User: What shape does this take?
Amino acid sequence: MFEVNDIPPIDGCELQELIGENVRHEEFLFFRINHGDDLDWILGEAEDYECFCTACQQHFAEDRKSGPASYWDACPRCGARITPRRWNNGKAKFLARTAFAFHFFQPGEHGEMWLTSCKVRMNPDFQSGKYLANEYARYCFSEFDSRMWIWKENGWKRSGSICFKQWKAMGGYCYDNFWSLPTEQEIAGSCLRYSQLTQAWSCMSDLPEYLAFYLKYPWTEYLWKMGFGRWLVERQEGKGHLFQKLVNLRAKVPERFIRLTKPELRAVRKARLTLVQTLVFRELRALNAVQPDAAGTEFARYLYASGVDFARLIRRAEVTARELVKYIRRQARRASGSEVTALQELCDYLDQLERMQIGGEKLPHDLHEAHARLSERERRLMNREKNEKFRTRRHLLAWMRWKYKGMFIRPIDSAEEIVREGEEQNNCVAGYATRHADGKTIIMVLRKRSEPRKPWHTVEIDPKTLVCRQCYAAHNRARTPEAAEFMDKYLDHLREVTKMIRRSA
Assistant: This one.
């Protein structure tokens, strides 16, 4: 077991050089007029510029005939890009504003690998060293265990967990992070030789946590080699429960490491499915709904995007899983649409049958036509008594109105308007009237300011999370790029408004 002071030593000059090799930031050239003094024999003739460059750390004299130093953009000695500044009292407090976190690896003598995190500022006393560096975290990765220490006022304290500790300022601001990675030879001679450290560094938000995880579960190496490194990234992003459903970290042989058959594994790897998409695909395979091929993985991707509970849909449609998949694919081809739209349209159609309490074919020959017919019938049955609720909702949701780049969005006004919206857009939005009036969903209309009365896109917003559930143009077509940009900005706006409301509450 290694303790905090077992770390390989590194002197100040070595650290300064290491930082200089791996960090790029704004450099400065300080200048002042040398009027002649005892340094003339070193600096040159009087009336030269006395200069100091932070990039090359050189102190030199430069002939004033070369032009005003305040206009220089490169150091005359090293050629580095610089910002000229007048040299006053030998200190430049503003240099300390150039601050960042620096993390570097050091191999140990017994195969361990050390990682050090430093708070680094440029030295205001620029001639006595370029940087001021203070360690704030140390990590040790070995075959025995992984350890982390954090610097406190009274010394180093062992941390109970391994995580990437960023340097944060007041208000939560995170300073930029710069890294010095070990060489391939250093990695090869350490306990991290199979960790895919360099690859992990390029995509992992918490590299120390990943390295500790790898040392605990060496099988992790196979995920990278099999092309599933992105699953490890997703695990760190909060999807560890999905990761554990697919990956057996305690497996004794590679064949049992991932909970998929070999044909399924090949199909998933080729399709580059995410964790949740892979789980959807596995469920489809368990239902014998799809084959382990490109078509099967593609349907899994569509099913996840639709948000449809497939097992429940099977029960409602009263067919086998494979028959339902074939039906969805056939209807998508018939309507020249996507399988996502066909899935959602079938769910809406079955919901309409239940709401209207009428009999009807569960899987009509032409789903789109049957859906449109039933939507028209439902629109005719709309009760105007809902308008009172609509007026109340309109006032409550007035804060959700917004304008952007010649477009605007607002809540639906009345039962009549939601009927007209459904008729002109040829969609089933009328079926959402009751849910909107009761506050279970939010129906919005997105229109162009040049044509405020002409339907353009119909939008459904989740009232609890303020997430966009649906945004379709006429005939349930996908939103236009212009509308997509608007919705991205609009959802950001809603999040900001809700934050302000919470802060004021």
